[in-house]
UniProtKB/TrEMBL annotation:
GO terms for biological process: proteolysis. It comes from Cyprinus carpio carpio. The keyword Hydrolase applies. It is found in: Cytoplasm, Cytosol. GO terms for molecular function: metallocarboxypeptidase activity; zinc ion binding. Residues 229-288 form the Peptidase M14 domain. This is BEN domain containing 5.
Length: 288
């Protein structure tokens, strides 16, 4: 039993895990000398293999069920294909409303740099379900949101529900809260944690939903909400340009190429100034 525990710890498995038992059975088969001991070891190895195969089959069924659940979730969310682009000056009104726009008919917009909001569902005058668009390279990752609202009514209270988060674990469960700013108050501020809730929602197939309450206090302001403090591509480019203007001898900035959207891709080299001089000299020699 002592050897068993040592092997399990070396293998990185729990002593009762099927992987460690199979490893122990194989090692025991190699070190036993008598025929009876070998036969017992073979039986133990066979039992371990059976347990391993059973666990593999169980894991396969769990993965298959998980895939079906993800598929059902995507269908329930309206399909990722439905969230092709960001909402653009979308005014959300009660179903069937055909009159002129009123104050309090909130206008959502995510056509801003680093913006993300694909769909808005009207639940009531005070509540809206928001659907965020997935990552470009992985449609199952849905985390970031950043959008603006306007045409609000003073003292209007709302609840925004981000209903299609893909993560079960989030810092929102540990006290983090979204950030907000407005045209008259351009500095980002965190919402009070007591107004933010991260929970499983039975109305959305028990997926995790983040809800936060907010009260608008100025009708003429445009409010912006974000997952956390945005760091945009433009801000990065301005920062790199300011570094380049300082002519730092240990920093070199080069254009590596252009993105699909024709945005500059930078290569930064931070090193000993002597290495930069040596590399430039070597490049001139090769070109000459």
């Amino acid at each position: 039993m002592q050897l068993h525990g040592i092997i399990c710890r070396v293998a990185g498995r729990h002593p009762c895990g099927w992987g460690s038992c199979a490893l122990f059975a194989r090692l025991h088969l190699l070190v036993t000398s008598s025929h009876s001991s070998r036969a017992a070891a073979r039986r133990r190895l066979g039992n371990a293999r059976s347990a391993s195969e059973a666990c593999v089959r169980l894991y396969g069924r769990m993965m298959e069920e998980n895939s079906r659940e993800h598929l059902d979730t995507d269908n329930e969310m309206g399909g990722e294909d439905a969230l092709v682009g960001n909402v653009n000056k979308l005014m959300v009104t009660p179903p069937g409303y055909t009159g002129p726009p009123k104050k309090g008919h909130i206008v959502f917009d995510a056509c801003i740099e680093s913006g993300n909001l694909g769909r808005v569902d009207y639940i009531s005058e005070f509540e809206f379900d928001l659907f965020i668009r997935p990552d470009t390279c992985n449609p199952r990752f849905r985390v970031w949101f950043n959008f603006t609202v306007e045409n609000v009514r003073e003292t209007q209270r709302v609840i925004f529900n981000i209903v299609n988060f893909s993560k079960t674990k989030s810092l929102y469960r540990d006290g983090m809260s979204p950030v907000v700013k407005s045209t008259s108050r351009p500095k980002w501020q965190r919402l009070p944690a007591k107004n933010v809730y991260y929970y499983r929602c039975p109305d959305h197939r028990r997926n995790y939903v983040m809800s936060f309450a907010f009260c608008f206090d100025r009708e003429d302001d445009v409010y912006q909400f974000s997952y956390c403090y945005p760091y945009t591509y433009s801000r990065l480019q301005h920062y790199l340009a300011s570094l380049e203007r300082r002519n730092l001898d240990y920093l070199q900035r080069e254009q590596l190429g252009l993105s699909v959207q024709q945005r500059r891709l930078d290569l930064l080299t931070i090193t000993n100034p002597a290495f930069v001089i040596w590399r430039e000299t070597r490049n001139r020699e090769w070109q000459g």
